[in-house]
Amino acid sequence: MSTLYRLIVCDLDGTVCTHDNQVNAAVREAMQNVLAADLWITLCTGRGYQTVHPFLSLVPVNAPLICCNGGLIVEPTTRHVLQVQPMSLPLAHKLLGLAQEEGLETWVYLDDMETMLEYNPSEPHPVLRRHGEIVRQVTDPVTELKRPPHKLVIITESPQDTPAAIASIKRCVADEARVLTSSPRLVEVIMPGISKARAVSWVADRLGVAREETIAIGDGDNDIEMLNWAGLGIAMGNGTPAAQAAADWIAPPVEEDGLAVALRRFALDF
Description:
This protein has helices at about 25-35, 50, 90-100, 140-145, 160-175, 195-205, 225-230, 240-245, 260-265, and strands at about 5-10, 40-45, 65, 70-75, 80-85, 105-110, 115-120, 125-130, 135, 150-155, 180-185, 185-190, 215-220, 230-235, 250. With about 270 residues, the protein is an alpha/beta fold.
């Protein structure tokens, strides 16, 4: 097995890290063993770089890092941007207006890869946040946003509120973007042409790795395209029904270190 697969691409939430944002020791050890075996391994996540960066001290990766569902590809050690497709600024403005009208919590990942613009209807003011700390309050998120952001997400109050939010967002974006969920309360708005599969293909080409030599591992509906693209698609035991249906193999759940099990079986051959 270890001579067949040369690139392993892992989703982050629900795959590498547990639902309380922990990376278990068994998972870290297995990923480190992949590096020691001279294989490529990286993350492919819906998160923007701002919220991926804290994990890079815990998760060993050596291949270009894929953020924003494929909209941003970055060298993990230098932060050098290899490829980026930002969100349309007019569309981001429309979505922020919708969020204010309907009281939808919204996070906007700004293009400096450090700062987030956060609108929460339960708070008195929107804020700019950097490295988890509030930089300053904002009067109007729409006028504050002056450059195309890397990513925008809507967070609903409960999973039961998500279908209605999706319907409103789809009416707002029409055919300007795709709308999907990466968790029960998180609604992703993705520009046309962006997908995890396309980004994984780009990284594989850059590394000289064939599609058949690539493993993709994930748990969400936004992972389906990369699971289908890879030579071996692995869904987590906690994955959505659609992600599991797209997979070639089902790993144990994240709480049972399913990623470590998958790496040992298919990449490390022990």
